[in-house]
Write a structure and sequence with these properties.
Order of helices and strands: EEEEEEHEEEEEEEEEEEEHEEEEHEEE
Distance between the termini: 47 Å
Largest sheet: 10 strands, mixed
Radius of gyration: 26 Å
Number of helices: 3
Helix content: under 10%
Number of domains: 2
Number of strands: 25
Length: 408
């Protein structure tokens, strides 16, 4: 039997159409369909894409059974699951697995091979059969690949570890991670350590198995030092899994997932007396977001400009400071001239807030005829960009610009 590398992600979408099934939850824990991205973390902390893949899994209870599992793609193609209980290597598991043979270098190629649409899942259990259950993906997209850090013996950003000493794995905030609005299962995080033969040495746990596991709010996981053997090399994986359309089918939870996994290669010294050379002094700490703070005498006029004239989303709100969202991880902070403010408004402000957009003309059309809008530069091309510039009520310069093709 050929060796199969099981993707660490385990969660996927499902909108279920009712069917005549009876108590499959006696045999099956949950089932999923997923799209997954693998990234490799460099010594600088940069994450580089490895590949994109498709998978589906049926997780069985310890004494449960399922067989004859198949998946029909939106294209009409039928694919058969493999019984991983029969695997003769480290991939052995109590699941039925469909791991797409393809590994894609581009997300668009994955989407072309496994397009979004209606997927039909079927499998048989002693307690009842599942036939052509309909699963569909949501539109939340792939999560940002997490940035991993390993701390051991008081040193952080380690990739060379001491044997038999606990190591703490942590990662940056799960961007976009959320609690499940349906109350079935929140977005998940998985931490897996595998050896050079791809055997799983440590696992942070899976849901519905009466064991601990990690959800989107978790920020660290401890690897037992007894698992770190002298002279060995390992692959550490941290996965952020977005869950879509969580539901239950005859009391069996089912999901779709889009997930991203970051992999970090680590090694263990042959001798515990060796010093671990961690890169704490040179590694670049992560940044989660960016806010530009602007200070105003006329606080109400500034709020009116960003909230109404531009129509930006208010994402943080206090009586003396408000954040307006300008991108997935950036904001403008509007601050009143008050006792709690770090700066005071100036009569002349040498600050430009540059907003990058692919729709600069649409933004121009939105604001050009609105009252109170002061143009410093009308829309036009130059310097490799197409742009226009406004002045806000505090005298700050607000630029909207779009890169021209020659500069991309």
């Amino acid at each position: 039997m050929k060796k199969i590398t099981i993707p660490s992600c385990i969660i996927f979408l499902i909108s279920v159409v009712a069917s005549a099934a009876n108590a499959q939850n006696e045999d099956v824990t949950f089932f999923v369909i997923g799209k997954h991205a693998n990234f490799s973390q460099q010594s600088t902390g940069e994450r580089l894409p490895i590949d994109y893949s498709f998978f589906s899994e049926v997780f069985m209870k310890a004494q449960g059974n399922a067989e004859n599992a198949s998946l029909i793609l939106p294209t009409g193609e039928r694919l058969e699951f493999e019984d991983m209980r029969e695997a003769q290597d480290g991939s052995r598991d109590n699941i039925l697995l469909l791991a797409g043979e393809d590994r894609f270098t581009e997300l668009t190629d994955l989407q072309a091979r496994y397009p979004d649409g209606k997927f039909l899942v079927s499998f048989d259990t002693p307690s009842g059969n599942v036939e052509d259950v309909i699963l569909e993906f949501d539109n939340r997209g792939l999560p940002v690949p997490p940035k991993i850090s390993v701390t051991q013996a008081g040193k952080s950003h380690c990739t060379e570890l001491l044997p038999s000493v606990n190591a703490v794995v942590d990662w940056d905030t799960f961007e976009g991670g959320r609690a499940d609005p349906n109350g079935i299962l929140d977005d998940l995080i998985f931490v897996i350590l595998t050896d050079a033969d791809e055997n799983r040495i440590a696992h942070s746990g899976r849901p519905f198995e009466q064991t601990p596991y990690l959800n989107f709010a978790a920020r660290s996981f401890t690897i037992d030092g007894d698992l770190l053997q002298a002279g060995q090399t390992y692959t550490l994986s941290v996965e952020h899994a977005i869950l879509d359309d969580t539901t239950e089918f005859d009391n069996v939870p089912a999901f779709t997932t889009r997930a991203a996994t970051t992999k970090l290669e680590i090694s263990v010294f042959a001798d515990a007396a060796e010093n671990s050379e961690c890169a704490a002094s040179t590694a670049i700490p992560s940044l989660d977001s960016q806010v530009t703070m602007l200070y105003y005498d006329d606080f109400d006029a500034a709020i009116q400009f960003y909230a109404t004239t531009l129509g930006l989303e208010l994402e943080f709100d206090l009586p003396w400071i408000k954040f307006f969202k300008t991108g997935p991880s950036s904001s403008v902070g509007v601050v009143a001239d008050s006792e709690g403010a770090w700066h005071t408004p100036q009569s002349t402000n040498a600050v430009m807030v540059s907003l990058v957009t692919r729709e600069v003309d649409a933004w121009h059309d939105r604001v050009k005829d609105r009252s109170g809008v002061s143009f410093l530069k009308d829309i036009g091309d130059g310097g490799g960009i197409r742009s226009f510039i406004l002045e806000d009520p505090g005298g700050y310069t607000v630029e909207f610009f779009q890169w021209l093709d020659t500069q991309q």
